[in-house]
Amino acid sequence: MVYEIEKLAKNLKAARQKKGLSQRALSALAGVPQSHISKIESGVVNLTLSSLTAIANALDLELALIPRKVAPAVRTITRSVNNVPQATPEVRKEIMQIAKEIEHIKTLKIDKSTFEGLQRQFRELQQFGNLIQSSDVLRSIRENLKAIENMGSTPALREASLQINRLRHMLAHGVADGNQVRQPRPAYRLDGDDDE
Fold first, then answer.
1. Mapping DSSP to helix (H, G, I), strand (E, B) and coil, where does residue 176 land?
2. N or C, where is the chain less crowded by C-beta within 10 Å?
3. Contact assessment for residue 47 and residue 8, using Cβ atoms and an 8 Å cutoff
4. Distance separating alpha carbons of residues 42 and 139, to the nearest angstrom
5. With 0-12 CB in 10 A as exposed, 13-18 as middle and 19+ as buried, what is 132?
């Protein structure tokens, strides 16, 4: 039983560090004293259910009771989710700046349906933010969005929307920033297949 608690404490600490939170920041989010979090992570104090729930919620973790026989499958899925690449700070910064620029464009007198298309394309792009490897293409999008204010034209707005859509499309199909193509895996392979 002690091993399971130590393992849980270790997992909570790893989740906190992965989110880039200090114990103090986690304390503020969870409403659990920082000294208590420190003791939990070092295994000095037993973890109560109320503390576990508060800390898990603050770390965007879900507590669930699952049947023991499906635990290996759940662990496999969890490992695959934990190995998802994270966006770089530069990419996150550019995405936030694009979002601000789009909010600013909203205040301009522009075609409403075209603007809504731009917003939709950007929301879809944000779902692939962790796959963007370089902030250069995002910077280019942001510069095009800034140009809309100067030009105030629907064609410029459409071009920015198309640029966002192209990037999202490339990411969805395995092209990272237009440079790398993920090769499809064959469904099967025949021995002695020498068609090349």
1. strand
2. C
3. yes
4. 43
5. buried
User: For residues 111 and 150, what is the distance between their CA atoms, to the nearest angstrom?
Assistant: 15
For 174, phi then psi, to 5°, come to 85, 15
What would the mean pLDDT of 10-23 be, rounded to a whole number?
88
Pick from 172, 160, 150, 156: nearest CA to 98: 160
Q: Is the dihedral of CA 136, 137, 142, 145 positive or negative?
A: positive
pLDDT in tens, 140-153: 888 888 877 766 66
Tokens of residue 181, six digits: 């193509």
Q: How far is CA 75 from CA 68, 71, 72, in A?
A: 11, 6, 5
Instruction: Say yes or no to pLDDT of 179 above 60.
Output: no
Q: How many CB atoms lie within 10 A of CB 168?
A: 20
Please name which of 182, 10, 11 lies closest in space to residue 82, comparing C-alpha atoms: 11
In the predicted structure, residue 96 carries a pLDDT above the cut 60: yes
pLDDT of res. 178: 41
Q: What is the token pair recorded at 9?
A: 């404490």
Residue 166 has pLDDT above 70, yes or no: yes
Instruction: Give the rounded percent of residues in the chain with a pLDDT score beyond 90.
Output: 7
Name the residue with tokens 């064609």.
155
**pLDDT band (50, 70, 90) for residue 35:** very high
